[in-house]
Backbone:
């Protein structure tokens, strides 16, 4: 039987040992770092975003620890900033272009940028973008200018879905279009899918039904604009520029490091001061003293030199997690040409403890255009790259991704 003094101290010990009720019900969001209630985590977070093929990464990279608010806002402002940038949007497009015939997706258009054209009834709040079809078709999109997301291909994606959007797109066939009208139709039909855009076929092709290309009959305004565009195209001097935000990738790479780092190291990753620095980078709070280090795509060739060649594959997205001295880095490579890297974790969280079997690094290889992905150890990936011992599964995916012509 306990005496009162013992009981009091035992209650005290129990009370100290028990986490508070609040603590047990709260989850820390990996991105904002706030402790939130369970009902604030309703969405599946892909640590590797879906536009890079993250849905086909192993389950450990699919998380329930990003709050709904972060999931929503970071998709628009951080993933979007990266994926809608000129070179990322176009380079990902090249992956899809090769497999359009076998995938169920449309052939992509290439984004040329913003023209200086002023078409009838365009005011200062409008811009005219130029796109290129797969066989050289010209596409002009007149839409509202976006001040906050000026470097996004297609403009502000939220506004683009808005009912008040008065966007109109004009499609011109190229000489080569008649060689493969199915390809042209696929590109026209699939373009601007998630946007409210009136599509108009601006050139005539005998026997071609505008509806087959997803287009509507032109009205008076369309006819007036088409006339100006025809004149400009014939003149051959349409000038356009690419809007660039030089820091488009910084927040994105911090987010990728946070998602991949948590997927690999679990909750101890969240306790590291370096993780806090990654969060500062994600939320634009980082200053010059930030310990976060990374290499942007445009400097990668200079930094990595010939190694760049071995960190990626022509038709895939590769994410390499690798130990470098006592740190762990993430390298992102799109189609071998675009490469970014960032330090993901430092020695304080035991960087030597990469998952079992992957102690020497991990290569996550994704083919979003094939809805496939696989993981190799980094040494196996390198061996494959050097043709020493190839991975058969990877070779088959590479063949499929190279398009139907090469596969035959
Ligand atoms: Zn959050």
Residues:
């Amino acid at each position: 039987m306990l005496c009162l003094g013992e009981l009091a101290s035992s209650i005290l010990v129990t009370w100290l040992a028990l986490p508070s009720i609040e603590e047990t019900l709260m989850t820390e969001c990996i991105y904002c770092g706030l402790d939130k209630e369970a009902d604030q985590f309703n969405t599946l977070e892909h640590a590797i975003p879906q536009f890079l093929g993250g849905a086909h990464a192993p389950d450990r990279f699919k998380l329930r620890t990003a709050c709904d608010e972060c999931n929503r806002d970071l998709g628009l402002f951080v993933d979007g900033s990266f994926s809608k940038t000129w070179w990322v949007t176009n380079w990902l497009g090249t992956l899809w272009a090769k497999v359009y015939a076998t995938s169920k997706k449309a052939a992509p258009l290439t984004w040329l940028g913003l023209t200086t054209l002023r078409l009838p009834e365009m005011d200062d709040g409008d811009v005219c973008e130029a796109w290129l079809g797969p066989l050289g078709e010209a596409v002009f999109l007149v839409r509202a200018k976006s001040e906050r997301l000026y470097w996004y291909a297609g403009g502000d994606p939220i506004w683009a879905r808005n009912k008040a959007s008065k966007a109109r797109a004009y499609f011109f066939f190229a000489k080569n279009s008649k060689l493969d009208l199915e390809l042209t139709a696929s590109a026209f039909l699939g373009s601007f899918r998630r946007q409210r855009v009136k599509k108009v076929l601006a050139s005539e092709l005998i026997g071609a039904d505008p509806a087959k290309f997803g287009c509507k009959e032109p009205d008076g305004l369309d006819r007036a604009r088409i006339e100006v565009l025809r004149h400009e195209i014939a003149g051959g001097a349409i000038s356009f520029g690419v809007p660039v935000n030089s820091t488009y990738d910084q927040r994105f790479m911090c987010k990728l490091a946070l998602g991949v780092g948590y997927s690999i190291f679990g909750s101890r990753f969240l306790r590291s001061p370096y993780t806090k620095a990654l969060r500062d980078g994600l939320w634009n709070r980082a200053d010059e003293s930030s310990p976060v280090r990374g290499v942007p795509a445009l400097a990668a060739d200079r930094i990595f030199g010939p190694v760049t060649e071995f960190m990626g594959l022509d038709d895939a997205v590769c994410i390499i997690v690798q130990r470098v001295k006592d740190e762990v880095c993430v390298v992102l490579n799109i189609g071998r040409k675009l490469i970014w890297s960032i330090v993901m974790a430092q020695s304080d969280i035991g960087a030597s403890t990469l998952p079992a079997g992957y102690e020497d690094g991990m290569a996550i290889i994704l083919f979003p255009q094939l809805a496939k992905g696989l993981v190799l150890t980094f040494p196996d990936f390198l061996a494959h790259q050097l043709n020493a011992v190839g991975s058969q599964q990877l070779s088959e995916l590479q063949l499929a991704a190279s398009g139907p012509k090469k596969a035959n």
About this structure: The first strand starts at residue 26 and ends at 28.
